[in-house]
Design brief:
By secondary structure, the protein is an all-alpha fold. The chain has helices at residues 2-9, 20-42, 49-58, 62-92, 109-118. Helix 1 (2-9) crosses helix 2 (20-42) and helix 2 (20-42) runs antiparallel to helix 4.
């Protein structure tokens, strides 16, 4: 659980490096929370004719709107940490954090960033800081 919330602890930290584990555990955490919120929202959507007719006369339930409000608040609270952890992942590969802007390229940009998020970082220290897997820089068999 520590790895899942670490990007929230480093909310505005765009410097340094982050491991793949930190990025993907954060991604998993966001996915799980959004899945729970969407299940709350869609549990309020009617699927039978009687329920649809009741919804047309009474309107959607309050839980439906609260679910969307909660989704919006969570999304706003997650934007900056998700960008920051992506920047730190690029730093781990000794690349500029500005490569996050590849996400803005239509159709292919997100796929390129996804591939970069799977790649291993550089071993040892680089210009962005020490290796997060081995912060002491101790080489066992060197």
């Amino acid at each position: 659980m520590e790895w899942m919330i670490l990007p929230y602890k480093r909310y505005f930290d765009f410097s340094g490096r982050s491991r793949r584990k930190e990025y993907w555990m954060f991604f998993l955490f966001v996915f799980i929370v959004e899945a729970i919120i969407f299940s709350i929202i869609f549990s309020q959507v009617p699927f039978t004719e009687d329920a649809i007719a009741a919804m047309e006369t009474n309107g959607p339930s309050g839980l439906f709107f609260w679910g969307f409000a909660l989704l919006g608040i969570f999304g706003l609270a997650t934007i900056i940490p998700s960008i920051a952890v992506q920047v730190r992942r690029f730093h781990d590969q000794d690349k500029s954090g500005w490569m996050v802007l590849l996400n803005l390229v239509p159709a292919i940009g997100g796929l390129i960033v996804l591939v970069f998020m799977f790649l291993e970082g550089t071993k040892g220290p680089n210009r962005y800081g020490p290796d997060p897997k081995d912060p002491a820089g101790a080489a066992v068999f060197a």
